[in-house]
């Protein structure tokens, strides 16, 4: 009888192990199934990532137009964080994208990234931006620098260094010039700021 009891106990224990193993297997399967359902039913993004930094370095109010402009800038610059978005103006046949380092004039339509650029002027090369009129049409004129080798002073460049882009109204041209000149002034202010070296940044982090 003792032997029979031992055999029955052994059978019961093996059955319990089988049950626990099946429960664990079912639990892992159910968790995998839940993860798969979660991945398939994960909510899509409602809006594009907001601009976390305005021209003055503060957090601006959310704007769908500026969020699209920021996304477009990241596509042009391969997500370089040093160049941040400032403003965007959508015009009939093109778009003006103003960043902290340059101004981009982009053709409207589906173009792969940088192929949409028909004019790019970096602030290092820009002397000033102004409104120009010719035969009843209004233009935004971007005068590039020409360095005088004798004095080393930056001066307005020759006529071929003054690209002009046609704008539909004088009001819009004035607005674009103000935004571009403002971004240029911000750029030069940042160039004059003292920057921390890598060692100083590491010391601040350690402290």
Q: How would a crystallographer describe the biggest sheet?
A: 4 strands, antiparallel
Instruction: Please tally the β strands and state the result.
Output: 8
| Order of strands, widest sheet | 1-2-3-4
**Helix content range:** 40-55%
Q: What's the SSE pattern? A: HHEEEEEEEEHH
Beta-strand content estimate = 15-25%
Radius of gyration: 31 Å
Pfam family, one: VPS13_C
InterPro entries: VPS13, VPS13-like_C
Domain Intermembrane lipid transfer protein VPS13-like C-terminal: 46-152
Protein name: Vacuolar protein sorting 13 homolog D
Polypeptide structure, described:
- The N terminus is likely disordered.
- The longest helix is centred in the first third of the chain and has 39 residues.
- It is built from four helices and eight strands, in the order ααββββββββαα.
- It has a four-stranded antiparallel β-sheet with strand order 1-2-3-4, sandwiched between helices. Strands 5, 6, 7 and 8 form a four-stranded antiparallel β-sheet that branches.
- With 207 residues, it is an alpha+beta fold.
- Helix content is 41%, strand content 25%.
- β6 and β7 form a beta hairpin.
- The chain has a domain of 129 residues: PH-domain like (Roll).
- The chain is globular, with a radius of gyration of 31 Å.
Give the SSE layout.
Layout: H1 2-40, H2 64-77, E1 85-90, E2 94-99, E3 102-107, E4 117-122, E5 126-134, E6 137-147, E7 154-156, E8 164-167, H3 170-192, H4 198-206
Antiparallel strand pairs: 1-2, 2-3, 3-4, 5-6, 6-7, 6-8
Domain Intermembrane lipid transfer protein VPS13-like C-terminal: 46-152
InterPro entries: VPS13, VPS13-like_C
Pfam family, one: VPS13_C
